[in-house]
Amino acid sequence: MIVKSKTKPLILRQMEALLNRIPDNHSKRKLIEEDFAKQMAGYKGEKSLEYHLSYLPEKESYVFHDLRLFNKQHFFQIDVLILTPFFLSILEVKNISGSLYFNSAYTQLVRRIEDKEEGFPDPVAQVKRQAFHLKCWLEEQNIPMPPIEPLAVIGNERSVIKFDPRDKMNLHLVIPPAEIPSKINYFRNRYKTEAHTNRQLKKLISKLTISHTPLLSKILQRYQISPAELKQGVQCHKCTSFPMIRLHGRWSCPACNQLSKDAHIQSLQEYSFLISQSISNAQAKKFLQVESRDSVKRLLQSISLKTIGTKRGTKYLLDFFADNPDSL
Questions:
Q1: Which residues contact 104 (CB under 8 A, 6 or more apart)?
Q2: Domains of the chain by range and CATH?
């Protein structure tokens, strides 16, 4: 059973908004496009796991994608968490192509493509660290400690996986996606005693769900881009040009004559992804390129946004997220 499904990560949505708002000739555009391609490849790799996870026993397997939990002083991220009454399993997913050599002596993954070598952090060390953090988190929540089985999944099934001949541990911890069901079945046969009662398992599922804290990165700072460098105004959904003009309660595109009642919603979403999760009337007036303060007020009130402050200090909360994101 999928408890928390795999959805497009916030960082991808932020990058999409950024690429939509920076000029085509911007000096940082190529770098952002390259980073976006890497993030998208990883997302597609994790998304492809859904097929293999669908073979898990429906009645005793509970799957969480992209969990971010707080453990005392630090957040830790889990790509996939599988809960059963008998054990938990953490999957660290890497969508890396090429010939992959696991060097356990240096806790490093070496990728070789066309006579070029590149080093990556060891996913086995990463997933073991996540297992440690999860154990600490479970202790904090006063939840009975189940066996925790970490696995590193190489999402690209065309990759060639190699190990040091002396390395006996990684051989069992690194698997392709197709091996997930058989590994989970192996653990199920290994652990015969229930670690959690049905009530305890439901409590754990509920606690994980409410404890998840998604991360909203300060993406403009990451690429050292000023808000002033972004395209202002409302974008036309038909021809993608900027800006549309507000006329008689509708948005009108000067380039293709397209009309829209709600084209401003996408612009406010992009503002929340890139600049701030709250906006004043004056800020919305500038970003949406609307001359009338009263028109902007009506637009913001029409989408039932919560507010903080009073009078000219009023700000509208751009709550376009499934959860309340934590900024970094």
A1: 122, 124, 163, 164, 167, 169, 170
A2: 2-216 (no CATH), 231-327 (1.10.10)
